[in-house]
Amino acid sequence: MPRNKLKKFAEIDKFPNVIYRSDSIAGNWSNTFFKNNNPVTLELGCGAGVMTLELASRYPNRNYIGVDNKRARVWYGARSALDREFTNVAFITTRIELLGEYFGPDEVGEIWIPFPDPYPKPSKSNKRLISPEMLGIYRNFITSDCVFHLKTDDQKLFDFSINTIENEKATIQLISKNTHDDPAVEDDVKIKTVYEERHLQEGKAIQYVRFTLD
């Protein structure tokens, strides 16, 4: 393992804004971590936390949690949040299918899913972040009015996601086939992640859907 990565692992273990274990945190984010009752937003597959940090800076009266199982990537976002003295930001390093262990009922009011792994093989479809299996996990800890945001450049994943949402009898609030050229899409959706910058440079259209689960 590269020395730089080992150094980051040693540092991130001491970061107060990074959560590794679910013990005593599920259902207690307001009391034990954020020390307020502000609504909670998740970014799934946050990587370096570009969207998490930008949203946190725009909305200081909301709490933001980035989730990723790649600790070396999370280091960048966690380090930046500490340097900028953000008190409304946390990170969880875990697999997303285990998130139910980290939250209690009605604890999350918004979920962003920017550029998730498409898992193109049909045998892996249950790992897609908008799938019946994953939506079932989210239902255990979201509020009744929780808003979901999905962005992707992958057409097959987008079609699969829309089909799943419709089959789950969810309410689609907005669909955009070209996010950055669509005036109906709010500015928050146009925050560019690292992958998004790359896809835009390649001339790819970014698709977006916003929905709630009934």
What do these coordinates show?
With about 210 residues, this protein is of the alpha/beta class. The chain has one domain (about 5-210): Rossmann fold, CATH 3.40.50. The chain is built from 7 helices and 8 strands. It has helices spanning about 5-10, 30-35, 50-60, 70-85, 130-140, 155-165, 195-200, and strands spanning about 20, 40-45, 65, 90, 110-115, 140-150, 170-175, 205-210. It has an 8-stranded mixed sheet with strand order 1-4-3-2-5-6-8-7, sandwiched between helices. Helix 1 packs across helix 4.
Overview in brief:
The chain contains seven helices and eight strands; from the N terminus they run H-E-H-E-H-E-H-E-E-H-E-H-E-H-E. The protein is α/β, with parallel strands linked by helices and 214 residues long.
